[in-house]
Write a structure and sequence with these properties.
With 116 residues, this protein is mainly α. The chain folds into two domains: 1-27, no CATH class; 31-108, 434 Repressor (Amino-terminal Domain), CATH 1.10.260.40. The chain is 68% helix and 0% strand. The chain is built from seven helices and no strands. α3 runs parallel beside α6 (86-95) and α4 crosses α5. The termini are far apart.
């Protein structure tokens, strides 16, 4: 493992010398802290839907029937597709038995990177 670390350090130094710079996704895309928090919130809600579905032993098709939609839409919900509204995340979670408090805790875990 130490060999891999030193090789990575060597490679990093070589790339930096060639003008390359290591940046975060936020820096690369020029995202604000609020935009990152929003993306993180959507990803957390998507994970919550998928985890709840799996915990209940349901297929995407069964969830689709519960929410009056299609399996493809459930797949989009679980992958945090940009076409999925926050309303759809919330209503899906509620129809899967989540409480408002549980949903609030999922959202509350997301940090905006600065004090409120």
């Amino acid at each position: 493992m130490n060999g891999a670390k030193s090789m990575n350090a060597t490679k990093r130094k070589r790339l930096e010398k060639a003008g390359w710079k290591e940046v975060t996704v936020q820096e690369l895309l020029g995202l604000t802290d609020e935009e990152v928090a929003f993306i993180d919130m959507r990803l957390s809600l998507a994970d919550c839907v998928k985890n709840r579905r799996q915990k209940l032993g349901l297929t995407q098709q069964q969830v689709a029937k519960r929410i009056g939609s299609s399996q493809a839409r459930v797949a989009k919900i679980e992958s945090a597709d940009p076409s999925v509204s926050l309303d759809l995340f919330f209503s899906t979670l509620l129809k899967l038995g989540a409480t408002c408090s549980q949903i609030g805790r999922v959202i509350g875990k997301v940090s905006t990177g600065h004090a409120a």
